[in-house]
Amino acid sequence: MTIMSGGFGLCGIAENLILAIRASGVKGLTFISNNAGVDGFGLGMLLETRQISKMISSYVGENKLFEQMFLSGELKLEFNPQGTLAERIRAGGAGIPAFFTKTGYGTLVAEGKECREFDGEMYVMETALKADLAIVKAWKGDAEGNLLYRKTSRNFNPMMAAAAQITVAEVEELVPVGSFDPDNIHTPGIYVDRILQGAAYEKRIEQRTTRKKVA
Amino acid sequence: MVWSRDDLAKRAAQELRDGYYVNLGIGIPTLVANFIPAGMEVTLQSENGMLGIGPFPYEGRKTPT
User: Fold this and answer.
1) d(CA A199, CA B11)
2) Is B59 a known active-site residue?
């Protein structure tokens, strides 16, 4: 089974749904996710339980267990440039089977892929990504499945909501239908099959960087 | 002279010009956000594509989403 998991780093990840997948014990999962969480949190929790067999990602640092599992051959990995990954998912949702991008041309990323010239520049053909299930996290949602994201957490979540057969959304706050101004909705409810209000949110920060107040 | 991370960021900030749009990569490049010369207007872009980011937050002003 292929699952798309939204968010950027630990920001905007479906914390409760990741726990639910862990509790279900389902194995042999392919995850499409920009990142792989950290040791002990986010998708890192599903690596601990050996439920993930393949990751399609752009950046998988911050995670020692991931490194071990990859080097031992326990975990398959398909790397994508970040923008290419985002566009492959968007294309999956938009019904576009493939597209051309400059990113990766002439590198390992382009190996085995069709390349073509447009207006004197070379491009690589990348194919769309779809999934059986998407787990997305939004700030607010209503019973119709309309979703509103907040800041960085909007990364990958809206595209994934559109690109999966079944989309399950968890929200910080479930509001009555009609609460949203239609012009402000980020993910229209038609893309969302199930919705729940998350029990609690840890919202861990990977690298906390602040500056000192100068008196 | 041994350059610190901040020294490198300060030097890079000297390359900025009024009106620039600047993409900051992860690592030392993000420190450049702390050294925009006063009175200069540049628009910073983070790795995930957001435009209009500023310097690092002060302690207690973090807004995890």
Assistant:
1) 47
2) no
DSSP state for residue A85 in the 8-state scheme: H
Give dist(CA A41, CA A27) in Å, integer.
Answer: 18
User: Which of A111, A115, A112 shows the shortest CA–CA distance to A102?
Assistant: A115
The closest alpha carbon to B64, from A157, A43, A209, belongs to A209
Q: Inter-chain contact A210–B56, Cβ cutoff 8 Å?
A: yes
Contact B62 A210 (CB under 8 A): yes
The DSSP code sequence of A102-130 is STTTTSGGGTTS-EEEETTEEEEEEE---
ipTM of the complex as predicted: 0.75
Indicate the residue type of B20: Y
Residue A144: C-alpha distances to residues A93, A195, A210 (Å): 19, 9, 39
Question: Cα dihedral sign for A37, A132, A123, B24?
Answer: negative
Chain B residues near residue A82 by CB distance under 8 angstroms: 47
pLDDT tens track for B2-36:
999 999 999 999 999 999 999 998 889 999 999 99
Single-letter residue type at A111: E
User: Number of Cβ pairs closer than 8 Å across A and B?
Assistant: 38
Query: Residues B15, B41, B47, B59: which is the catalytic one?
Result: B47
What pairs with residue A41 in β-bridges?
A: A38
Chain A residues whose CB is inside 8 A of the B55 CB are 211
**Interchain contact, A210 vs B59, CB within 8 Å:** yes
Tokens of A158: 């809206």
* Chain A residue at shortest CA distance from B48: A155
pLDDT band at B53 (very low <50, low <70, confident <90, very high): confident
Residue carrying the six token digits 């067999």: A53
- Strand-pair partners of A76: A54
